[in-house]
Amino acid sequence: MIAAMADKPERDGIVLTEAQKKSRRQRSVAIALALGVLVVLFFAVTMVKGPAVLVRPM
Amino acid sequence: MSVLDHNAVDINPRISEAEVGDYIALLKPRVMSLVIFTALVGMAMAPGHFHWVLAITSLLCIAVGAGASGALNMALEGDIDAKMSRTANRPIPRGRITRGEAMAFGLTLSFFSVMTLGILVNWIAGALLAFTIFFYVVIYTMGLKRWTAQNIVIGGAAGALPPVVAWAAVTGSVDVEPLLLFAIIFFWTPPHFWALALFRSDDYARAGIPMLPNVAGPDATRLQILLYTIVLIAVAAAPWALGYFDAVYGVVSLILGAGMLVLAINVYMRRTRAASLRATRKLFAFSILYLFALFATLLAEVVFRALAPMVGGA
Q1: CA nearest A2 in B: which residue?
Q2: Least CB–CB distance from A23: residue in B17, B57, B120
Q3: A53 interfacial to chain B (CB closer than 8 Å)
Q4: How far apart are CA B117 and CA B144, in angstroms?
Q5: What does pTM read for this prediction?
Q6: Which residue in A36, B1, B114, B219 has the most C-beta neighbors within 10 A?
Q7: Across the interface, which of B15, B17, B120 has its CB nearest the CB of A45?
Q8: Å between A9 CA and nearest CA of chain B
Q9: Low-confidence ranges of chain B (pLDDT < 50)
């Protein structure tokens, strides 16, 4: 059985083109930025509404 | 022996080449900018102190919610968009993004925008944003648009809700003033979209969408545009007439309304092909300026009111 498997040509799987790699990288960066914004947003609002760090009398 | 049925596995799956710009196009940025602006006015008009962090958060959530509606709309209307010259260049007809990808994108953004607004600001605003998305996607896109010539009249409610959501974000309630803003956008929608439908009637006919010019005819549409414009002028003057805004807003709204009325009469009178085309294009372009100028005047007056005590006290 092992010999039979070795006889099969090795498959490379899916190889992305340069355009696909580039667009995937772009999308990954955009998702990371969006998640970063969400984290900052939650942190900032927690400061405002929770411990009220940013809320001070004028 | 293999446990995998290789016939059942797609060995050439579609690998997306969609770029960030394609996804931004799904959000309908131009519509989004008008939504942000009208929401900003609703927020500025609302009474009481509202922390700037919460203001930015609210506007961001409303903008993302509006964008999500746009993405879901495009996911559901990929077939229609491909048939219309105005929309054939959108990411789905161009094959940049699949309908499934757009649907997943829209649903994800809808979920995050509603939950973020609800958790971080208040749940009345979150619920109103959820209702806005539901109304635009399910009631308008999936129901009214392909079913009745009154599609954009009823569906216009979705586009009119952002100032109400923004007001609710500040106050946690809904009052007469945001409902006046709602009414202005609601009655502005028919003249605006029917002007577009008149000069794009071939497009809509090809896509099989029952817009008023294709169902009732161009003449009936011209009359409806004129009638809705008259109602719009009265509704737009209401914030002044009811005493919420002073004469400056009243005069500006009437001057802008006169401009809309002249152009609507022009559309009603000119019925030959070339003249009609020019008239409807002018009305369509002016209607965008009209809404922007009207809301900018409201914003300017609110800002002036806020600054007046400081200037007077200095």
Answers
A1: B1
A2: B17
A3: no
A4: 28
A5: 0.89
A6: B114
A7: B120
A8: 15
A9: 1, 314
Residue A51 confidence (pLDDT): 62
Per-residue pLDDT band for A13 (boundaries 50, 70, 90) equals: confident
Q: Does B112 touch chain A (CB under 8 A)?
A: yes
Written as six digits, the tokens of B208 are 């099989």
B16 in reach of chain A (CB within 8 A): yes
Q: A23–B18: do the CB atoms touch at under 8 Å?
A: yes
Chain A contact set for B15 (CB, 8 A): 14, 16-17, 20
The predicted-structure confidence for B145-202, as pLDDT tens digits, reads as follows 999 999 999 999 999 999 999 999 999 999 999 999 999 999 999 999 999 999 888 8
Tell me how far apart the alpha carbons of residues B180 and B252 are, in angstroms, rounded to a whole number. 16
Mutation target among B53, B94, B123 for the A interface, most CBs of A within 10 A: B53
Å from B149 to nearest chain A CA?
39
| Best to test chain A binding among B1, B14, B101, B120 (most A CBs inside 10 Å) | B120
ipTM value, please give it.
0.81
Give the position of tokens 């109400």: B164
Give the residue carrying structure tokens 């984290």: A39
Say if B57 is an interface residue toward chain A (CB within 8 Å): yes
A27 shares contact with chain B (CB less than 8 Å): yes
Which tens digit of pLDDT belongs to each residue from B14-36? 888 889 999 999 999 999 999 99
Three-state SS at A57: coil
DSSP-derived secondary structure letter, A8: S
